[in-house]
Structure formats: structure tokens, C-alpha cells
């Protein structure tokens, strides 16, 4: 079987109640649940939460919430892997063991069902432990610079000051939308970033971190623009 796990704890600080805040007309987590169902990939779509209100919203949007996430896995220091591992172990203990598991973030309204299907195809065809969404950095990271304590600037990699942008290696970053992995990898891995992981590249205009109120406003404008183009 194939399992979707959507982590959604209740204690968001920078954007209160972030995981169920209304985004372009419905709770943001509902967009992730809809994408999971729309992909046709999953036997179960589970939301892992410690919060009764989030659980209710998730059920109304069509997800299962078959357990309450333990408090030890619900603080802001807990990473994604332990949360998904807990859900996988719960599924193994209570029913059929999954062959592949996809973690989908609750705040990923740009995620499309086809992205999820493509991620599964990459995982199955290329093998390895994980296949997850990435996007290209918009400018060469080799030419990035820092602000010094004195208020001046210095390059991280001064040797590339004269290098043409087109001659520099492309770099990618975690798009924060989905992470496919084998059940065994979720149960044993310490990191998603390993030589056996594979990148699934998304278009940059469909990737936006939503960590601050400014991010939220920008994401809604982007989402509305994409809908108008559809």
C-alpha cells in the first residue's frame, strides 16, 4: 500500500494557526489533502496532529486522523522524519505495511497531483531511499555575499567574482512540498539528503516558502495569478 502523511502540529508561532488558516478560500491544509487525493496514488491520506481543531478541519477536508500525535513529537524542535516515522510505525502496527510513503506539507497549496505522481515514478524508476521536490536557486549561489559586522559586504566565494553566471554550476533548494520515501527509509534514515535521494524539479513560479505573514501575502497573490492563467 501507499501512504500519505501530512504533518500539522498546532503550535505555529510566526503565523498563528498556520496549518488551518484560510488560504484563497479554504484552510490551507485542505489544498494539500486535495492534491493527495487528486493524485490517485494513495490508499490512505493521514494527517498527523496533536491539535483537535486541526484534526476536525482535516477530516472535513477528506483526510483520516486515526491517532493523536504524541506531545514528544509536537514541539518546534521535532523534525519531519520522526513524525513520519511515527505514522509509518503506527500503520505497520495496526494494518498493512506500506511500501512507499509520501510526506506532504500542510502549507503546500502550489502542490499539484501530477507532481506527486511524478515523484512516485522517480522513486520507483530510479530506486534509492527518497525522491523529493526541489527548485533552482534564482541566481548563482557561488556569487552570494554576506554583510560583515562592520556593515560592509564580502563574497562567500571571491574566486567567482569574474565568473560568468552561465559558467557556474546550477544549485537547487528544498521546495518544501513533498517527500516520497520507502517505508524502510522513513523508519531508519537520519536525513533526507543522501547519495541515494533523487531531486524532483518543480517550476520556480510554483514554489514559495510560507513562514512569515509577508510570505503568506505573496503566496496568495501568486496562487491567484496561477488560477487566472489556468
Automatic annotation (TrEMBL):
Which of UniProt's keywords are assigned here?
Answer: Nucleotidyltransferase, Transferase
Which Gene Ontology molecular function entries are recorded, alphabetically? N-acylneuraminate cytidylyltransferase activity
Look at the named UniProt entry and state the broad enzyme category this protein falls under.
transferase
- Name the EC number(s): 2.7.7.43
CDD domains attached to this UniProt entry: CMP-NeuAc_Synthase
Q: Which residues form a coiled coil?
A: none
Instruction: List, alphabetically, the InterPro entries matched.
Output: CMP-NeuNAc_synthase, Cytidylyl_trans, Nucleotide-diphossugar_trans, PseF
Q: Which PANTHER family match?
A: HAD SUPERFAMILY MEMBERS CMAS AND KDSC (PTHR21485), N-ACYLNEURAMINATE CYTIDYLYLTRANSFERASE-RELATED (PTHR21485:SF6)
Question: NCBIfam families recorded for this chain?
Answer: PseF (TIGR03584)
Write the protein's name.
N-acylneuraminate cytidylyltransferase
User: What lineage is on file?
Assistant: Bacteria, Pseudomonadati, Pseudomonadota, Betaproteobacteria, Burkholderiales
